[in-house]
Amino acid sequence: MTGNGLEERLRDALTARAEQITQERLRFGEPPTVAALTSPSRWRRWWWVPLPAGLAVAGAVLGALTLTGQPPSPDPKPLPPASSAEPSTVISPSVPLFPPSTPAPSASTNPSATTSKPGRPELSPDDTPPTVTAGEHDPGAATPTTKPPATTIPATPPS
Amino acid sequence: MTIVLPMPPLLRWLRRVLTGADTPARSTVGPAGPPAINELYHSRRLSMVRLAVLMVDDLSTAEDIVQDVFTALYRKHGAELRTIADPNAYLVAGVTNAARSALRRRRTARAYVPPPPGTAPAAEDEAMLGAGDQEVLRAMRGLTGRQRQVLVLRYWSDLSEEEIADVMRVSRGTVKSTAHRALSVLRARLGER
Fold it and tell me: Is B16 within the bounds of a domain?
């Protein structure tokens, strides 16, 4: 078989196969101007969503700034000491009481800050509690149903 | 409370007001007739589908390829095609690249799932062809995708080697060697019978 003969056979076969595809066999095709509208790409369909979302976020931030009147401080304030007493702390009547965590000096010097704290009130070294309830020192007395009635203990043990 | 504006219709209306022209989608019927992309679609769709059929050997896949290529052409260059020098060359290159992608996807899929029985050419298509043509087309199915594309572009589209190299984005030497190898394979297969 010569090369020209093979090329002629190839050309004839391709032409015969292509002529089998007629206009009637094609399904209905929409022109590109219509098809581009009916099947938009995902990006073209949703590109506008970030714009109102960004506007909403910006509006919320501006509103919050307007209501508070000051920008948020970059460093958070120190947390106040925990309000619940630690069960492992043993309070002796003869030993002065101190809070388990010492607050910041600036917070302790501010009288309004100390009075507004919801935690345990600070006790100065001179203050000695006259009475201490036994229920506060018992670690196992966490549940209120098993809590014994408070008994008064004298501040100074009898010699 | 935030009001979400209907952004696409608003921008479309603004664009129409600023340019003083209608949108491309609505300019399909105007005083100057249909846009160039639609004329090109009606005049070249059949030949592009034939080209794609010769490459992928499946009519429905070929129609999908041609539709995607025309839609991409419209989205990229607009309805009047003023920014493109040769739309026909663009179509041939687009169909060739899309057919190559379709063949690659088909080869990957067939590595995992056997081909369904409906992918073979229809029986009436086979019957309408002569015995010699059937033999040649059967031998062509054993070629690689690139070899098949080179033969189709050369012997059906009558493109030169340089034009084929431009369409397929390969060198002219690659086109020449690919065609030579494809013809050798065909000659061997047809000579054995």
Answer: no
Q: Evaluate whether A109 touches A77 at the Cβ level (below 8 Å).
A: no
ipTM value: 0.76
Lowest pLDDT segment from A114-118, A128-132, B11-15, B69-73: A114-118
Contacts of A36 in chain B (CB under 8 A): 25, 71, 74-75
Residue among B7, B51, B183 minimizing CB distance to A52: B7
Residue A25 half-sphere exposure toward CB, CA atoms < 13 A: 18
Query: pLDDT tens across A15-68, in order?
Result: 999 998 988 888 887 888 887 776 656 566 678 889 999 999 999 999 999 988
CB A110 within 8 A of CB A122: no
Boundaries of domain holding B190: 129-193
Disruptive mutation site among B46, B71, B135 for chain A (greatest number of A CBs within 10 Å): B71
How many angstroms separate the CA of residue A133 from the nearest CA in chain B?
55
CB contact under 8 A, A33 and B28: yes
Domain count, chain B: 2
